[in-house]
Amino acid sequence: MRFGLVVWASDDEQTYRLRARLVEENYDKARDGHGFLEPMFSNVMEQLAVTTTRLSKLLDVLASKGILTEEEKKNVFEVPDSERKERRELFCRVRDFDKWVENEN
Known about the structure:
By secondary structure, the chain is of the alpha+beta class. It has one domain. It has helices spanning about 25-30, 40-65, 70-75, 80-90, 95-100, and strands at about 1-10, 15-25. Strands 1-2 form a two-stranded antiparallel ribbon. The radius of gyration is 20 Å and the shape is extended.
């Protein structure tokens, strides 16, 4: 038995709420091949983790050198819901709609 997807949240980084799923060993033995969108999804998650860590470290360095104020650093991290929604919608954009629809099947 192992943990599957663990979903969690924290409003204050002191208290956490989470849901963990337990997965039976038989599930892993019964699966053939790789999961949906693999290995792309795992690679994207890895690169996203690396990129966000690098950005955080870069902002810390800039702030420690006085190039960036703490307020400016805070503003970089805070992304308004409207801007987040707009960025998320870009994931569904294609360059050539007609070509995309034509090759969909």
